[in-house]
Amino acid sequence: MVIARTVVPDITPFFFAIRRISCIINAISLMFDSDMRQKICFTYSYRKQILPETMLEVTKKIGDDFFCDKSILEHGIEFIGLINKQGRMEGAIFNNDINLTGERKEMYMMELRLQSSMQSDFDSELGPVSYNVTEREKSKFVSIINFPYIVLAVMKKSKDHIAVIGKIKTAIRNFQNFNKESNVQKSDHV
Questions:
Q1: In this structure, are residues 87 and 114 in contact, taking their beta carbons and an 8 Å threshold?
Q2: How far, rounded to the nearest angstrom, does the alpha carbon of residue 24 sit from its chain's CA centroid?
Q3: Cα separation of 24 and 31, whole Å?
Q4: Mean pLDDT in each 10-residue stretch from start to end of the chain (190 residues)?
Q5: Contact between 142 and 159 (Cβ < 8 Å)
Q6: What's the CA dihedral at 116, 121, 123, 124 to 10 degrees?
Q7: E-strand spans in the chain?
Q8: For residues 161 and 152, what is the distance between their CA atoms, to the nearest angstrom?
Q9: Domains of the chain, each with CATH number or no CATH
C-alpha cells in the first residue's frame, strides 16, 4: 500500500516579504513632497550622444538649481542625475547617458530608491547611509542618499569617487543654502 503525501510548503515568509515590500512602496509614495519638487526636463540619449547645454530645460519656482554648476561634470564623470522619492528621474546632466532603454532606466532608478529605503531601516542601529558605490565592468555608479533626492553619479572606473562625492556634496550644501536664503528673501517681501 502506497500512501501519497502532499507536502505543503510554509509560505508565511513569502507573505511577510510581500507585505514588507508593499509597505516600503507605500512609504516612499507618502514621503513625496510636491512643494519640494522641481521639474527638470531633459532629452534622453540612449546611443551615448552628447547633450548640448541648450537642450537642458530647467523649470523651477526659485532661482538657480543644483544643475546650474556644470563644472561638476568634468572629464571622467559621465552622468549626474536626481532621483525623487518615487524613484523617478527628476533631471540630469551628462556627457554620456546611461546605456539603458527608457523602461530599464526607470526600473534601475526605482531599484536605487528601494535599496535606499531598505537601508534606512537600520539607521537607528548603524547610522545613516551616506553613499553607495557599485563598480561594474566599465564604470562606477555612486548614489548619494543624504539629500531629499538620491543623486546618482556615473563615472569611469579610473575616477576617484571620493573626490567626486565631495564635489557633489558641496554642490548639494550650496543648493540647500541657496534655497534657505531664497525662502527668507521671499518671506521678507511678503
A1: yes
A2: 16
A3: 11
A4: 56 60 58 40 36 32 50 80 86 79 87 90 91 92 84 90 88 69 48
A5: no
A6: 170
A7: 39-41, 57-59, 77-83, 89-94, 131-135, 139-144, 150-156
A8: 12
A9: 36-183 (3.30.450.30)
